[in-house]
Design brief:
By secondary structure, the protein is mainly alpha-helical. It has nine helices and no strands. Helix 4 packs parallel to helix 8. The longest helix is centred in the first third of the chain and has 23 residues. It starts with 7 loop residues before the first helix and ends in a 17-residue tail after the last helix. Pfam families: Sigma70_r2 (PF04542), Sigma70_r4_2 (PF08281). InterPro entries: RNA_pol_sigma-70-like, RNA_pol_sigma-70_dom, RNA_pol_sigma70_r2, RNA_pol_sigma70_r4_t2, RNA_pol_sigma_r2, RNA_pol_sigma_r3/r4-like, WH-like_DNA-bd_sf. This is RNA polymerase sigma factor. Belongs to the sigma-70 factor family. ECF subfamily.
């Protein structure tokens, strides 16, 4: 993660994304395609962490709403990522309510995360999250921790933006992210602590 908790890759894209969104709001279809290309990998990874194998259908529904309401959006590239994550989260929760099932543990795509090298225990966890096997562990975290980690690491939102998506205070999101990363550190063996038994997304501690 970068200094403020965002993957550097996502930060680098925000200027391009903001410009593309502005052009798309003026009716430029090619610019909308650029915005989609920049946002979709992280957004799909986040939705997959919530709904499992139905992620592509849910993400498609989210993009229909995003396209419909695009002219109402106000903000920059980082703001657009937060706005789209909020829409996707609502569609995912609607889907889960319709299905009346808990989110299923699934492996997230390896290419949705691009992280810098390790420096601390938590940096080592984030580095290890670039593997398919380790990403599957995120879905087994308590729900608040899983969503916080997915929004911060996969979507690339900063703390306040993630808090707005989740409707929580930034401090609560920071705590959930820390606890989630700490739990992942134990499961990945980066701090030598043995974790307790597996949990499913939706459980809380």
């Amino acid at each position: 993660m970068g200094q403020r908790g965002e993957p550097r890759r996502v930060q680098a894209y925000d200027g391009e994304l903001g410009a593309a969104v502005a052009r798309a709001q003026d009716g430029d279809e090619a610019a909308f395609a650029v915005a989609y290309r920049l946002v979709q990998p992280g957004l799909l990874g986040y939705v997959r962490g919530l709904v499992g194998e139905d992620a592509e259908d849910v993400a498609a529904d989210a993009w229909l709403e995003i396209a419909r309401d695009l002219r109402r959006f106000k903000g920059d590239g980082a703001g657009f990522r937060g706005w789209t994550a909020t829409i996707a989260r609502h569609r995912a929760l609607d889907h889960l309510r319709r299905q009346k099932v808990r989110p299923r543990p699934t492996a997230l795509d390896q290419d949705v995360v691009d992280l810098p090298g390790p420096h601390t225990t938590h940096d080592q966890v984030l580095e290890n999250l670039s593997t398919r096997t380790a990403l599957a562990l995120v879905s087994a975290l308590p729900r608040d921790q899983a969503e916080a980690v997915l929004l911060r690491v996969v979507v690339g939102l900063d703390g306040p933006s993630a808090a707005r998506v989740l409707g929580k205070r930034p401090g609560a999101v920071r705590t959930a992210t820390y606890r989630g990363l700490k739990r992942l550190a134990r499961r990945l063996g980066t701090d030598g602590v043995t974790d307790d038994g597996p949990r499913t997304l939706g459980e809380s501690t």
